[in-house]
Amino acid sequence: MVRRNYTEDDVAEAILDTTGRGLSQNEAAQKRGVPQSTLSGRLSGQASRNERIQAHQRIPKSQGEMLIRWVLRQESLGYALSHSQVRACVEAILQQQGDNKPLGKYWTTRFVKRHLELSTKLGKRQEAARFDGFTPKAVNWYFDIRENEYGWIKPENTVNVDEGGIMVGFGLDSLVIGSSDPKKKAMLKGVQSRTWTSFIEAVTATGRALKPGIIFKGKELQKQWFLNEFELIADWHYITSPNGWTDNHIALEWLKDVYLPQTEPRDASDARLIILDGHGSHAQDEWMATCFLNNVYCCYLPAHCSHGLQPLDNGIFNVIKGAYRKELQKLASLTDSAPDDKVHFIRAYAKAREAGMRKDIILSGWRFTGNWPINRYKALAHPEIQPDKEKLLEEFKTPSPPQLHSDDTPKTSRQLEVGDVQSVAIHLTWSMPQKRRMSKQPLGHNGAGRSTAFGSLSVWTHHLRGFKLDKKWVPTCRDSKPCKHSKPQMAATIGAGMQDIDLFDAAATEGAAVVGGTNQNVGFMGWATAGGHGWLTSEFGQGADNILEASIVTPSGDLVTANEHQHSDLFWAIRGGGGGTFGVIVEATIQAYPMPQATVWTIDVSTKNTSCTACWYRFVAELHAYLPELKKGGLQGNYVLGGPPSYENLTFYGLFFLYNKPNGTTERLIQPFISHLEAANETTEFTSNIIWAPSWISVYKKFPDLGSSAATGGGATTSRLLSAKAVTKDVDALAQTLEIIGPSAEGPQNGFSNPSISGSMAISSVKVNSALNPVWRDTVVHMAVSSGWKDNMPYQQAERAVDDMTNVKGAALRRLEPNGGAYMNEVRSITPGLHWFNRS
Predict the structure, then answer these.
(1) Rounded-to-integer distance, Cα 677 and Cα 623, Å
(2) Which of 156, 225, 278, 817 is most buried, by CB atoms within 10 Å?
C-alpha cells in the first residue's frame, strides 16, 4: 500500500528490490509503500523531489537546517518565533549573500510544510495572569529553562540588559548675583527642565559592564551638548528619540552597534544569551533576525518578574540612581549659571556609573537573583516573591483536619489564599475546634516575621482587593443602617490586600489622598493597624488613626463591623494593637482628604573633615535639636545618615514635605537650620533645594521608593521612638549615641556593610483614643539602624553582628530614650525588656 510519508530510504530499498532482488516495479512499490510513478522515474535517472526542490530554494540546505535548529532552541527557551520573524531571518541571510529579492507571499508556510520537525500552531501571549506576578510558579518556570537550556552558554557570553531613566535637571539650584548682605537670601525662580533621559545598561555574568547607551530627548544629536572633558567617555553610544524613551529603531541600533561588538565571543562558534524584559522592541522581526545571524538567544523574563529576576534591578540600578542624585546636587551647587541639562546629566551619570558598575556589585546582582551561578533557590527566597495564586490546600476543603504528628504540631506551616469573606470564615470556623494556630499575612512585607508562625495556618489576604471613594460617607450603626447623626466625611473603603501604591493612585484619580507608608509595596492593613507612619501621617494622622470602620472575621468565624458605634472595643484594639491579633480584617474604611499641595525640601550635608568622626556626630546631634520645631511647623519626612561606599563621605540626606502652606513658609521654618550649616562651612558642605508642586502625588512619583532595594545576604536592625527631650536635652549624649550606632568614615569591614541610620519625622502628635502606644504622640523621630552582610558569612560572625546590633547599638538607643518605645512592625522580638502592648 502506498504511504504518504514514505522516506528516501524507502525509495532506495524499492530500487534495490527492483534491480537486485528480482521484484517487479509494481511489487517493489507495493512492498515499500512508494508510488510506482516515483520508483519508475528514479530508475530512469530522475532526481529526488527534495533534490529538485532544493535546486530552486532561496537558501542552501545547510543554512535552512541552521535556521531550524535556532528556531527550535529559541522555542525551548520560552519564546517561539512568528512567521514574520522567520521570514526576517531568511531575508537577512539572503541580504548577506547580495540577494535583495523579497520572498514569496507563502514562502514561510511552504518552508514549514517541507520540514516535518516544524509546525504552525496558535501562540499565546506571556501575560501577567499566566503566573500572577512574581511567584514561585514563575520562578520555577524560568529556572527550568535556565538550567536545562541556557546552562551550556558561558557566563562571559551571558548578558542582562535593561533600560532605566532619570528626569534630568530636577531640583537644580545655581549661583546668582545679588546683594552683599548675607542676611538676604537669594531665591531662584523660573521653569526648570523636566526632560527625561534614558539609559540602556548591560552587564555580563562575569561582572563586566558594557558601554552604556544614552537616549536623549530630541531630533538629532547636537555638538554643543558635549564638552571637551567628555572625550574620555565619548565611546558611549548616544541616541535621540522624540520622548527620551527607547523604540524599535533604538533597540536595534543598540543591538548592532553596542551589544554585538562588545560581546564578541573568543570562540566564534560560541552562542550568546541576552536576559531581558518583554518590551516589544526586543521581539521585533529585525531584532530576531540579527540575533539569529549572530548566534544570539533571547531569554524573556516572565511578565512582572523583572524586579525579582533581573540582576540590574537588584542592587545595581539602586546604587547608580542614589549616586547620580548626589553628584547632580554637587554639580548644581558649584555652577555659576544654569548649565545645559544634558551636559549636567553626562557629568553626574559618569560618576554614578563608577559607583554602581563595580564588579562586586554586578556579581552581587547575578548571585542574588540566582542567575549566576544558576540557583533557583536564591530567587525563591527573594523578599518580594508572592505565593502562587493557583496553589490550593485541598486538605482544608473538608471538615477533617490534616494529619498531624503525635505532638499535634505540623512540621511546616500551611498557607491558604482567600478571595472572599466566606473563605475566611470557613477556615477560621474549622481551625478553632482543632486548636490550630493561625497567622494572617496580607502581603508578607514584614521582615521581622510577625506575619508568620511555626506550624500555623496562614491566611493570605492579598487577593481581597477593591477601592471605593465616598465623599459623604457615614459609619454603620448596630441596625446595619447608616448612622444618621454622624457627620458625613470623605472616606475610601478598601480591601485587605491593597498596597500603598494602589491606594495612592486610586485616590489620586479622584483628586484625593490617603495615608500610607514610604514603601510602595507595603500592604495598608498590616501597616496601619500596628501604627503606620509615612509621607502624610504627620499631617493627617497615623495609619491607625485613619481607620474609620472595619469588617472583621472573628476567630469564631463571625463577620462583624467594628467602629465607634458597634463592637467599639474591637475597633479600639485594631487601631494600634495589630489587626491580625484579634481576627482577620477583610475590608476597612479609611479617611480620605483633598489632594494637598506640597513643598519639598531636600537637604544634603556631608563632612569635609574625614579624620574626626566624633566631630561629625557632634555636629549632626546639633542639627537634631532643630527637628522638634521643624515638626511643629508642619515639616515631615525622612532622613538618612550614611557613609562609604553609598556616600563618598559621612552624609546626612533628608527629604521633607510641607503641605498646604503659604509661599515662604518652608524658607522661614528651615532658616535656623540653614544658618547652623552656614556657620560650619569650614568642616561641612551642603546643598539645599526647595520645590513646590500643585499636588503631592505628582512630586511623590518622582522620588525613590524608600526601602524597596533588595538585600544580598543577612542583616540586623534595631530601632527606637525618640522624644523631643531625647534629641534636645543632652547634645553630648546624642552625639555619643550616634557615633556608636552610625556608619564609620572608613566604610565596610570584614564583609559587613557600613551601618546606616534612618530617621522618620512623620509622626502625628494628635492624641486619639486607640490601642496605639501613647509613646508615639511624644515622638519626634523614629530612628532605625541597619547593617548587613554577605550570604556566605560564617554563622558565628553573623551571630556576633546580631548581638552587637541588639545589645550594643540597641542598648545605646535605649539609654538615650529609657522611657520610650518601639514601632510594633519593626522592633525585633529579641530586644531585651520588650513588653508588647506596653511602654518598653
Answers:
(1) 8
(2) 817
CATH code of the domain made up of 128-174+191-380: 3.30.420.10
Angle between the 8-20 and 36-43 helix axes, to the nearest 10 degrees?
70
Q: Enter the pTM of the model.
A: 0.53
Residues 416 and 393: their CA atoms lie apart, in Å, by 6
Query: Which residue in the block uniquely carries the three cell numbers 541588639?
Result: 806
Strand partners, 276: 300
- pLDDT tops 70 at residue 820: yes
3 state SS of 141: helix
Stretch 420-443: mean pLDDT:
59
* Residue 418 three-state SS: coil
Q: Which residue has the higher pLDDT, 159 or 46?
A: 159
SS (H, E, C) 184-241: CCCCCCCCCCCCEEEEEEEEECCCCECCCEEEEECCCCCHHHCCHHHHHHCCCEEEEE
- Grid cell of 307 as nine digits: 524586579
For residue 562, give the C-alpha cell. Answer: 467594628
C-alpha span between 237 and 199 (Å, rounded): 10
Cα separation values, 15 from 44, 365, 413, Å: 11, 63, 70
- Which residue bears the cell 546668582? 176
Is residue 50 within 8 Å of 74, Cβ to Cβ? no
Q: Which contacts of 417-422 are long-range, i.e. CB under 8 A and separated by 24 or more positions?
A: 417/387, 417/389, 417/391, 417/460, 417/462, 417/463, 418/459, 418/460, 418/461, 418/463, 418/464, 419/463, 419/464, 420/464, 421/551, 421/553, 421/559, 421/586, 421/587
Q: For residues 60 and 335, which has the higher predicted lDDT (pLDDT)?
A: 60
Q: Report which listed range, 17-26, 413-422, 552-561, is most confident.
A: 17-26
- CA–chain centroid gap for 472, Å, is 36
DSSP-assigned states of every residue in 739-750 = HHHS--SS--BT
pLDDT tens track for 640-690? 999 998 888 999 999 999 999 998 999 999 999 999 999 999 999 999 999
Q: Give the mean pLDDT of the chain.
A: 81
Residue 256: DSSP 8-state = I
Closest CA to 604 of 167, 164, 173: 173
Of 424, 419, 460, nearest to 552 by C-alpha is 424
**CATH node for 598-816:** 3.40.462.20
Please name the amino acid found at residue 480. Answer: S
Give the SS3 label for residue 435.
coil
Output the pLDDT for position 383: 72
Residue 61 CB neighbour total at 10 angstroms: 11
Full DSSP string of 624-637: HTTHHHHHHTT-EE
Q: Which pLDDT value is given to residue 456? A: 58
Q: Give me the phi and psi of 620, to 5 degrees please.
A: -65, -40
Single out the residue of 250, 248, 236, 312 nearest to residue 275, CA to CA.
Answer: 312
Q: Over the range 205-243, which residues count as b (16 or more CB within 10 Å of their CB) and which as e?
A: bebbbbbbbbbbbbeeeeeebbeeeeeebeebbbbbbee
Residue 202: partners with Cβ closer than 8 Å, 6 or more residues away: 159, 160, 161, 162, 209, 210, 258, 259
Angle, vertex CA 112, rays to CA 109 and CA 114, nearest 5: 110
User: Cα(460)–Cα(445) distance, rounded to whole angstroms?
Assistant: 12
Asked if the model's pLDDT at residue 765 lies above 50, the reply is: yes
Q: Is the pLDDT of residue 453 over 70?
A: no
Q: Which CATH architecture has domain 392-403+412-595?
A: 2-Layer Sandwich (3.30)
How far, in Å, are 137, 287, 540 from residue 412 at the CA level?
Answer: 20, 47, 42
Give the pLDDT mean for 245-250: 86
CB atoms within 10 A of CB 145: 17
pLDDT reading at 468 higher than 70: yes
**The cell 520645590 sits on which residue?**
691
- What stretches of 312-379 adopt beta strand conformation (E)? none
